[in-house]
Design brief:
Layout (H helix, E strand, L loop, with lengths): L4 H60 L4
Length: 68
């Protein structure tokens, strides 16, 4: 049985192209997921910081107001 090297090389090249395409697609998907997750975490941290600052301002206003 004789091996056709040109056919074998063609199949290997096709598999390499397919693997590169799938790898690129996976990279884009994972990168998008990581960016979305980091954006969500950043917005949550910013929201928590704004709430804390608002509480500090509210306490300062309450302390500055004269009572009775």
């Amino acid at each position: 049985m004789e091996i056709d090297l040109a056919f074998f090389a063609q199949r290997v090249a096709m598999l390499a192209c397919l693997a590169g395409f799938i790898g690129g697609l996976l990279f884009v998907l994972v990168h998008g997921a990581v960016v979305a997750l980091s954006e969500r975490l950043r917005s949550r941290a910013n929201r928590a910081e704004r709430i804390a600052q608002a509480r500090i301002r509210a306490q300062a206003i309450l302390r500055a107001m004269p009572r009775g």
